[in-house]
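Dear colleagues,

As part of the handover before I leave the project, I'm documenting each prediction I ran so the next person doesn't have to rerun anything. This entry is a single chain, and its sequence is reproduced below.
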Amino acid sequence: MKKTITLMVLAILFFACKSKSGTTSTTVKNEPVASTKLDRSSQVAIKGDWVITSVTYPGSDYIKVSSFQIADSKCFVGSTWHFISNNNKGSMALTKTDCPAFSSPIVWSVNKEGQFVLKIVDAGEKAKKVRDGYVLRVANQTETSFQLVDIINVGGQSKEVTYQFEKTN
């Protein structure tokens, strides 16, 4: 009996899923999930070229997290991000070996509530046609670094995934 319970606990620890609160699509009542009032000073501070230097979360030795429905979160370490603040566009690319190659244009903004709203778009596609996106919290923002914090559901509990960005230019 004790072995069965241990195996069940281990099975729960191996799977994590993204909560639906991370979407920027509209709700049934046609109200946006995230505020549309922008924090221009936070956006200007983010403009430029950045690299993700770490991705951390509780249980990272046991739990695999798929980030942005693209790849394992560990594949985002070393990824490059370019943010343009005057038109809220940019790009991102995964560059880590042994991970899927991926690059894409992005549309992004930071609202007055400190939420980073991200849409990953296909080349040539208009952002308004993309119905889904991600809402993360901006934390510890300085001139040379900032964090994006996502909330995931692990076995019915909310856990934070922190993406550490460092400026490269």
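Residues 1-32 have pLDDT under 50 and may be disordered. Residues 82 and 135 are 18 Å apart (CA to CA).

All the best with the project,
I.
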